Amino acid sequence: MQAACNNENNDGFAIMDIEKLKQQLFKQSQQLAEDNKQKLLPLQKHKVSDYQISQTRRVNYKSFAFKLITFLQLAPIKNSIKIKLHRLIQLRPSIPSNSQIKGIIKKIPLMGQLITFALFIRKFERLETQLVTLNEQNQNLHQRLMSLQMTKTMVSSEQVDNNSELLFHHQLSQNIIDQWYLDFEDKFRGSAENIIKQLENYWPHIEALFAQQQQHSRINSIDELQCLDLGAGRGEWLSLLKQKGIHDTIGVDLNTKMVELCQQQQLMVIASDALEYLMHRNENSCHLITAFHLIEHLSFEQRMLLFTLSLKVLKPGGMILFETPNPENITVGSYSFYLDPTHNNPLPPISIEFLAQQTGYEQIMMLRKNPREEVGESMPLTEQWFKSPVDYAILAKKPL
Fold first, then answer.
1. How many helices (H) and strands (E) does the chain have?
2. Neighbour-count burial of 253, counting CB atoms closer than 10 A to its CB (0-12 exposed, 13-18 middle, 19+ buried)
3. 265 HSE (CA, 13 A, CB side)
4. Burial class (CB in 10 A: 0-12, 13-18, 19+), 114
5. CATH 3.40.50.150, the chain: domain bounds
6. What is the pLDDT along the chain (400 residues), one digit of tens a residue?
7. Is the C-alpha dihedral spanning 244, 279, 396, 199 positive or negative?
8. Domain 191-397 coded CATH 3.40.50.150
9. What is the DSSP string of 112-166?
10. CB 231 within 8 A of CB 274
11. CA-CA-CA-CA torsion for 311, 316, 322, 326, nearest 10 degrees?
12. Strands 314-325 and 362-371
């Protein structure tokens, strides 16, 4: 009987202790809820996203976990809680329903937060598993990317090899063409000595140009003439100027074999396109621009550009001298002109004269040179169409 009374007293004390514990936990949960509310107020004012709120709650869960761990590390209180919870379970032997569990959680907010924290930990573990899977996928993608890069490098190297091979074949074919044209000039144009003799017919006009420049006090001696020869070829004209004492000369030609031949003769010749060179040449920087058997290789647009750029580069009173095959001679216009496969079309003298007039040149002269000898009795028809000079030149000056 006495033992039974003692047990009842003990149970009474246990219930009182549990009530005290519940009150303490309730106060702590209220304090924690108030703290959370204060922390969420700024977020609600600024209408932040759910993600930001979840981030703040996550920080609160961590803080709560640290507090819980600290609380559980206190051995005496820990043991007392275990005993009191055990007695509480004995007093409630039946399994509670969901509504009862929710009611208990509402009455004991601390346990509700503990369950929420456990659910968060479980979710975090699932995220860690997904992260491991993503890392594996990332490694597979990285390996695939490396494989693709290696394949790309191999393809690029093959393309470079192919481009290098094409460039090599282009250079090889260009060298063959350049050498072919040099041999063609030697066979069909004639020797360099004969060409120089023919070109001496233009020397009086060079002397007249010097006299005009000297009259306007631009130069004092003929060796001060600045001359540019476009399509220098084998260098016959530059060699003649050098013999006459004019050394300020520059030749331009695209044919590398021709350029090498001129350089072997100590002539200043550069490998370049004539029009591109004129585009980069300074204005008013040259007294004389010559081009022998060049304009028949150009298109109409290129010829217009040649006359325009030459006018820009010439000094005031400077002169152009362009020689080309004369189609007034039927043999030239219908046959010999087409021996050169790089010729474009024959150019009647009156059309070139008109082009010079339209461009802005003055003091235009058309000189017909190198008459052709024909076998048989001379008649007006043969004199006009068969014995006409095989070449002609246009001489025109830039206004002073």
1. 14, 7
2. buried
3. 21
4. middle
5. 191-397
6. 444 444 444 444 444 555 665 566 666 666 665 665 565 555 444 444 554 445 444 445 445 555 555 544 444 444 555 555 555 545 444 445 555 555 554 555 555 555 566 666 667 677 777 778 887 887 878 777 877 777 776 666 555 555 555 655 556 578 888 888 989 998 888 888 999 999 999 999 999 999 999 988 778 899 999 999 999 999 999 999 999 999 999 999 999 999 999 999 999 999 999 999 999 999 999 999 999 999 999 999 999 999 999 999 999 999 999 999 999 998 899 888 999 999 999 999 999 999 999 999 999 999 998 766 544 445 455 555 667 889 999 999 999 8
7. positive
8. yes
9. HHHHHHHHHHHHHHHHHHHHHHHHHHHHHHHHHHHHHHHHHHHHHHHHHHHHHHH
10. yes
11. 100
12. unpaired
Q: How far is CA 376 from the centre of its chain?
A: 67
Mark residue 211 as left, alpha or beta (left: phi above 0; alpha: psi -120 to 50; beta: remaining).
alpha
- Dist CA 318 CA 234 (whole Å): 25
What sign does the dihedral 179-255-248-199 (CA atoms) show? positive
Contacts (Cβ under 8 Å, ≥6 apart) of 129: none
How is 235-249 classified by DSSP, letter by letter? SHHHHHHHHTT---E
At residue 142, what are phi and psi to the nearest 5 degrees? -65, -45
Say if residue 16 is exposed, middle or buried (CB neighbours under 10 Å; 0-12, 13-18, 19+): exposed
pTM of the model: 0.58
